[in-house]
Design goal:
heterodimer; A: alpha/beta; Rossmann fold; Ubiquitin-like (UB roll); de novo design (two linked rop proteins); 3 domains; 16 helices; about 40% helix; B: alpha+beta; Alpha-Beta Plaits; globular
């Protein structure tokens, strides 16, 4: 174990892009395979803005951290985004990533960096060991790390593991960024840590005090009702009880006057257009469950059993985890908004100014 | 190492390559039920060597592969 790996293991740093894998282990595997590094600054999750926060405020530390990990570094950002412009202006090598939810997925970035399309590839083991893309092109060993994770590495090297562990909890140590979006008067990125009350994060973002629910982790996690969120701490053990996780640290506030069923319908309509069109269960399954939920929202009771069965057909059946995320998101929505869905099935809506969905589906 | 004829073999479905021809279902219907869109439900199955060889050979999309350990 190198000095850097020991520092990161002592600090307990985990990936901040969503998967929360130990950073020291990833870097050890990367170094053993002489892997190049792609810093993921795409803010790929719905509503996420923390990568932009890191790029715009801590670029020197980001570059410092990246240089500690690998000799060959590329910065991935959405083409035309503010992050992209800033990275290019700084003279850094930038991988311009096209729009699309899965285009910023780890293996899609590696494929793009090797001259292929920004679409996920099948892999039997992590791409830090190398692999092949869908056309059979060789992919060199590549480590993909979220921008916040790389920035934290620089901080840990400068300030030490003890400083890092003075934030958060023993199980989820360190400072971490949270993006609050939706019904809030001061939405944006907060410097926070695991273990604090969720209501404090909402208070800092001046969220609608009468909010109905929180969408946690965008399209890859779940929901909390208002009652669940009040009194809950921002940590995985507590969130997991409700099918949620810290993930990439996004909280979207569903306001008091917003119909949550309509919000879910719209998010699923977006999701239905995000498949890379490679794996059948995703290409057909995600649009199918999206249409099923829209039909429920429009009052078609017969679609409920359809939807429940098809939900089981998404998990673990894609080359990437996008369909798994959509299944979790939708299961969370059905759990959290059961009463709202019932009201829609009866032709109404629990939120004032009921909207009809017949024309939306 | 010589493959034992009776040794069970694990096959993995390459989800990107799979294009719902249904040959796996035709060869081993109990191992490969199909979903609403004609794609095999399981992502990995264990079967005998003879069936495994037929499955790999007759998948038109070459989407069935022996796993590294199988």
């Amino acid at each position: 174990m190198t000095e850097l790996e020991r520092l990161l293991a002592d600090a307990g740093l985990t990936g901040r892009g969503g998967a929360a894998y130990p950073a020291a282990d990833k870097i050890a595997a990367a170094r053993a395979n002489s892997a190049g590094l792609i810093v993921n600054a795409c803010d790929g999750e719905l509503d996420a803005a923390k990568d932009w926060f890191v790029v715009s405020r801590h670029l020197d530390e980001l570059v410092h951290g990246a240089g500690l990990i690998a000799g060959e570094v590329t910065y991935a950002a959405r083409g035309g985004s503010m992050s992209c412009d800033l990275l290019v202006r700084a003279g850094l090598p930038v991988l311009r990533v096209p729009d699309g939810y899965v285009a910023s997925e780890e293996s899609a970035l590696v494929a793009l960096a090797h001259g292929g399309d920004a679409r996920p590839v099948s892999r039997e083991r992590p791409l830090v060991f190398g692999g092949r893309d869908t056309e059979g092109r060789k992919l060199r060993p590549t480590l993909v790390m979220n921008a916040e994770t790389v920035w934290r590495i620089s901080q840990i090297v400068r300030f030490g593991p003890r400083w890092f562990r003075s934030f958060g909890t023993p199980g989820e140590p360190g400072p971490r960024l949270v993006t609050v979006a939706g019904a809030a008067r001061s939405p944006g990125v907060l410097e926070a840590a695991a273990g604090g009350p969720i209501t404090e994060l909402l208070h800092r973002a001046v969220a609608d005090p009468a909010f109905q629910a929180l969408s946690v982790g965008g399209l890859s996690s779940g929901f909390l009702t208002r009652d669940e969120a009040v009194g809950l701490r921002w940590e995985d053990a507590q969130l997991a009880v409700f099918g949620c996780s810290i993930g990439s640290g996004v909280i979207r506030v569903v306001g008091a006057d917003e119909c949550p069923v309509r919000h879910v319908v719209q998010t699923l309509e977006f999701a239905a257009r995000q498949s890379a069109g490679q794996c059948g269960p995703c290409m057909f399954g995600v649009p199918a469950v999206s249409a099923d939920f829209a039909a429920l929202a429009a009052g078609d009771r017969n679609r409920a059993t359809h939807l429940q069965r098809r939900l089981t057909l998404l998990t673990g059946r894609g080359a990437c985890r996008f369909p798994d995320g959509v299944a979790r998101y939708l299961a969370g929505a059905l759990r959290t908004f059961a009463a709202d869905v019932d009201a829609h099935l009866a032709g109404g809506c629990l939120v004032g100014r009921a909207r009809r969905y017949a024309d939306a589906s | 190492m010589r493959a034992d004829r009776d040794q069970p073999i694990q096959l993995r479905v390459d989800r990107i390559a799979c294009s719902a021809h249904g040959a796996c279902h035709a060869i081993a219907p109990e191992k490969f039920p199909l979903d609403d869109w004609g794609y095999p439900v399981p992502s990995a199955v264990v079967t005998d060597a003879e069936t495994a060889a037929a499955l790999v050979r007759f998948c038109p999309a070459a989407a069935l592969r022996r796993t590294a350990g199988g």
